[in-house]
Amino acid sequence: MISAKKVFFFIVCSITISVKAQNEVKVILPSNSYESLIKLYDANANDTLVAKKIAHVYINKAKKDNDSTKIARGYARLAFVSERSTALKYLDTTIALSINSKHKNFPAVGYLFKSLYLFNNDEYEKSLKNAILGYKSAKKKGNIDQQLTALLQINSINAIWGDYRKALNSELLTLDLLFNNKELEGFTQHYLYSLEGIGKCYVRLNKPDSALIYFNKGIVEALKEKDSITYYAFVSRTGTALYKKRDFKAALDSLIKGDIIRESYNKKYLPYYYYYVGSTHYSQENIDEGIFYYKKIDSIYENSRVLQPELPIVYDRLATYYKSQGDKETQLKYLYKLIQVRKIINTKRIFIKEKTSQDYHIPKLLEEKDLLITELNQKNNKATTITWFILLFLGISIAFIFYYFKRQRLFRRRFEELETQLEHPKKDEETINTIETGIPENIINDILLKLDTFENESSFLSLNLSLNSMSKSFNTNSTYLSKVINLKKNKNFSQYINDLRIDFTIREFKNNFKFRKYTIKAIANESGFKNAESFSKAFYKKFGIYPSFYLKQLENKKD
User: Fold this and answer.
1) Is domain 162-266 in CATH 3.30.1360.180, yes or no?
2) Domain 425-558, CATH class in plain words
3) What is the pLDDT of residues 309-355, one digit of tens each?
4) CB burial class (10 A; 0-12, 13-18, 19+) of residue 547?
5) Which residues contact 539 (CB under 8 A, 6 or more apart)?
6) Which of 42, 213, 271, 517 is most buried, by the most CB atoms less than 10 A from its CB?
7) Which range, 124-128, 254-258, 427-431, 432-436, has the best average confidence (pLDDT)?
8) What pLDDT does 370 receive?
9) Domain locations in the chain?
10) 1-158 CATH
């Protein structure tokens, strides 16, 4: 409803320079520079006869200079002030002359204006084709203005006849491109057009709350720009979203408020307005009032053959209404029209969806086709890598689980063996051959007595215990003490001390309920170990299980 032509003429190729209209036309001479002729043309664009003369002078001057791009520019100007059929021929000439031009605006100018003329004449398939060609040309030249204009045109067609979800994605991508180029002269016009397009898509997707967000943004922006036409257009659009929310009173208020300047809107406005006003009445059970507006839409279609996506709903409701009135002849007339428009609309939608899919990649419309393919391949490779990683992870997890349960079974067996061993303890062999040690017998006996006292008094629980400190307390040397322990217990000094401490721990576990409730660190300290890690290692070395597992099994056994 917001005029696309307004956006095109303001933005497409940066060729319109605002100049105040003059009361008298300056003398048009071929000697005038190209830019002075363009300014003169812009100043008199509303006087088509004068504008055509200026355009012809421009073209003839360019022909003498053999400048094909400027000739093309002249024909584009000539098209702007000509009737549709003639304008399309001039635009074809513009395209043909500038197809190989290095100028950043050509040949996209020809494609985009041709798309606009075709769109306004409801030739959507042809309009889409030219918009896509214009987009590709603008993309190749890096012309952001023209890319945005082409995208807005393509999105407009898809929002009516394409896949609404994909159309919305395309609109949102276009908005992203726009916000990445805020410095553009036509930013505001593009922004307003995008807000309307996104809102329309949300309405068609039955997401009125999302639509209202964008329509209200449009209202705010239009007020800021003091653009009353666009303001009322957005007010009217809010009526469609409110209708979808079934807030019929508010919907009618918005639609009627926006209608006060209907002459400023394009020719697609009236069928749109009649449909939503009529549908609002129809949904409120004001059937006759709704039918009144639906018949207005039918009359417009009969005169202009302008299709609207909602026409099948209109003819279905008209046929239903006249069936209820017993008017079979009129009912049959509308049923016939319903079949006709459905067939035409379905054909149109199929073409546009296929054309969009083949030539205009909505999911990645901001990238070239080969870049898209590369990205998809990368995604596939990444997906394959992730799949293998997941399989590897699952394999490792299964192996770990298998190992865990196997180890748990082993630990439980060792626990049972330990319990049996504790019930039937074996005595250490204490016979020592004095010849093997080279230590006098009286010294050996003295050390053995002191070891018994050492064990009975639990002196091994001292955190600062060492071979040297122990030998001094025994009034002997460390060599003698170490040899006696090696031969008495078949273990070295460290192992002997650790085993005494672990045996102490086991006794406490068995006999001291409070001791079991300590943390592993506290148990380690109470047992003479400086830290939990050395305690756990010593416990595991002696019994093949960890103290935490032993405690858990002990508690389970108790239960």
Assistant:
1) no
2) mainly alpha
3) 899 999 999 999 999 999 999 999 999 999 999 988 888 777 777 76
4) buried
5) 502, 505, 545, 546, 547, 550
6) 271
7) 254-258
8) 43
9) 1-158, 162-266, 285-360, 367-424, 425-558
10) 1.25.40.10
